[in-house]
Specification:
The chain has 226 residues and is α+β, with helices and mostly antiparallel strands. It is built from five helices and ten strands, in the order βββββββααβαββαα. A hairpin with a 2-residue loop joins β5 and β6.
Length: 226
């Protein structure tokens, strides 16, 4: 796969194992708007929380939720930003957590249950789930969006963002990420060619041997009736 981009990402090093120039990934970062990621309800961890320890200054922790789209699946990311005080000059520590471990970060104490159910349902709905149509419509293997529950229904989605910045290697190592992108572009998105017939996204997925309900990472889906 040949990558055309103005920035480097953590999986770029895998290009060294060989380049198939018939598969091209034009990794241009841009923003589109969508209503597909609007949340039905508020989830926890969207505000500042101030915690005190005896003999220490106050610490401020801010949580940001994101949905990361990667090769036909979505993953839930929690960005945790911590400062020792609220001064602008104070350095901020940033950590990244995925999936179920995000609940442990937001609900550190057992008695903290505000929006626990809604947050858990959000994670169950979006983490490691099949989600092809948005990528097909926008012709991208990767996207990122900060979900929101409230009055703002149309959200900005970043297409082709950097995965290294959000420690996505915790989900896929560099070689696996490169291979996934290459297979997704060649097998699902396809290369640019004149369109002779408009077909639905589901049919486009199926014609390459995939199934909207079963990932190509699952080698043994249930057999269909002939």
């Amino acid at each position: 796969m040949l990558i055309l981009s103005k920035f480097r990402d953590y999986y770029d090093s895998s290009v060294g194992y060989g380049i198939d120039k018939t598969i091209i990934y034009e990794r241009e970062t841009r923003i589109v708007k969508s209503k597909e990621f609007f949340l039905d309800d508020y989830i926890a961890g969207e505000n500042y929380y101030r915690g005190f320890e005896w003999g220490r200054r106050a610490t401020i922790t801010r949580h940001e939720w994101r949905i990361i789209g990667f090769c036909g699946k979505t993953y839930v990311l929690l960005v945790e930003k911590t400062k020792e005080d609220d001064k602008e000059s104070t350095l901020e520590t940033v950590e990244y957590f995925y999936g179920d471990e995000t609940l442990e970060r937001v609900f550190k104490k057992k008695k903290e249950k505000w929006r626990y159910k809604e947050t858990q349902e959000f994670i169950n709905k979006w983490h490691s789930k099949e989600f092809f149509n948005f990528s097909l419509t926008n012709k991208v293997p990767i996207f990122s969006v900060q979900p929101f529950g409230g009055y703002l229904k149309t959200l900005e989605v970043v297409l082709n963002p950097s995965l290294g910045e959000i420690k996505f290697s915790r989900i896929f190592d560099s070689i696996s990420a490169f291979q996934e992108i290459q297979m997704f572009i060649s097998g699902v998105l396809g290369t640019d060619s004149p369109k002779t017939l408009e077909i639905s996204n589901d049919e486009k997925i199926k014609q390459y041997g995939y199934d909207p309900k079963w990932s190509f990472r699952n080698p043994d889906p249930p057999k269909r009736k002939q």
